[in-house]
Amino acid sequence: MSLPTILLSHPLPPEWIASLAGRVRLLTGPAEPPGFSGELLAHLDVAEGILCLLTDRVDEALLARAPRLRVVSNMAVGVDNIDIPACTRRGIPVGHTPGVLTDATADLTMAILLSAARRLPESARDARQGRWGTWSPTGWLGADLRGATLGIVGMGKIGRAVAERARGFGLRLLYSNPAPRPEVEAALGAEYVPLEALLRRSDFVSLHCPLNPRTRGLIDEAALRAMKPGAILVNAARGPVVDSAALVRALTEGWIAAAALDVTDPEPLPPEHPLYALPNCLIVPHIGSATHGARRRMAEIACENLLAGLAGKRLPHCVNPQVFGDV
Ligand code: GLV
């Protein structure tokens, strides 16, 4: 019996995808450019599964070229790169990798929040470039955390993990979410507020919502103007949740104090982008889940989802369970 053909858009360490060995015919694309391109596209007509990254677009055009496709498995928790309704219409289950990157992403969120609050990029650069001088009582002053307010936009798994960490730093917690989460309020003392109040009252605003039509551009000019002038915006969700042009103006004109971005729009952010020129903007290259453990588990779960789909079984982590007849 021939093995099902699987397209993997980008090479992964063999030990991360060991469960596929001998069970699929794996065709792997090059590290660059991202997405399904070149030779891999030529095999779409026979592909029964796709193992993709958040940089790969899986849309109508691609699906139309893959008539034998039975499963799409994303090595990410976010699935904004995939046209889910189009997959659902075709009865194709889509897998993702929640849970295993929660701690890594929450840790990174706190790392960049603290870095921006305490101006680590600027002060480290100044030390390295000979601008340390004598110890200065007023040099590189940053924001206090204890007693300050953190507003969390999106109280899912990662939002909650950030809230847990933030409590340890003495931050007061506000959150906005499509629905209140009484268990989080009980456990962490977080207050559920409308976004407008969160923006107005928070010293730190941290984004943890998925990217969808409702959240695209959520942090626009009006939202940035609603924030405190001393506030710091943290984005470890998806770049397009924030309007980049409005953010440049907000940071340049002092509507807010600083931003710490793990994700940007566009991504990657080109070196000439004005955000890089701003000393109050910290940018790291979408590394929220970039720990050895998290990335390996993400790949392993992506393989589990893929193999389940090929076997016609429910995926352990499926974003469109309707394809299995679930409500
Ligand atoms: C990372 O951004 C993910 O969605 O897994």
What does this protein look like?
- This protein is of the alpha/beta class and 327 residues long.
- The protein folds into two domains: 129 residues, 3-Layer(aba) Sandwich (Rossmann fold), CATH 3.40.50; 182 residues, Rossmann fold.
- Helices cover 31% and strands 14% of the residues.
- It contains eleven helices and twelve strands.
- It has a seven-stranded parallel beta sheet with strand order 8-7-6-9-10-11-12, sandwiched between helices.
- Helix 6 links the parallel strand 6 and strand 7.
- Helix 4 crosses helix 6.
- It starts with a strand and ends in a 17-residue tail after the last helix.
- The relative contact order is 0.15.
- The model has no long low-confidence stretch (mean pLDDT 97).
- It binds glyoxylic acid.
What secondary-structure arrangement, pairings included, does this model have?
Layout: E1 5-8, E2 25-28, H1 38-41, E3 47-52, H2 60-64, E4 71-74, H3 84-89, E5 94-95, H4 102-117, H5 120-128, E6 149-153, H6 157-168, E7 172-176, H7 182-188, E8 191-192, H8 195-201, E9 204-207, H9 221-226, E10 232-235, H10 244-252, E11 258-261, E12 281-283, H11 292-310
Parallel strand pairs: 1-2, 1-3, 3-4, 4-5, 6-7, 6-9, 7-8, 9-10, 10-11, 11-12
Helix pairs in contact: 4-6
This protein binds glyoxylic acid.
The site of glyoxylic acid has 7 residues, from loops.
The end-to-end distance, rounded to whole angstroms, is 35 Å
Instruction: Report the major sheet.
Output: 7 strands, parallel
Structural class: alpha/beta
Which outline best applies? globular
Number of domains: 2
Order of helices and strands: EEHEHEHEHHEHEHEHEHEHEEH
Supply Rg.
Answer: 22 Å
The percentage helix is: 25-40%
In terms of per-residue confidence, which ranges show pLDDT below 50 for 5 or more consecutive residues?
Answer: none
CATH superfamily of the largest domain: NAD(P)-binding Rossmann-like Domain
Strand content: 5-15%
How many extended strands? 12
Q: What number is the mean pLDDT? A: 97
What is the CATH T-level topology of the largest domain?
Rossmann fold
Structure annotation, total helices:
11
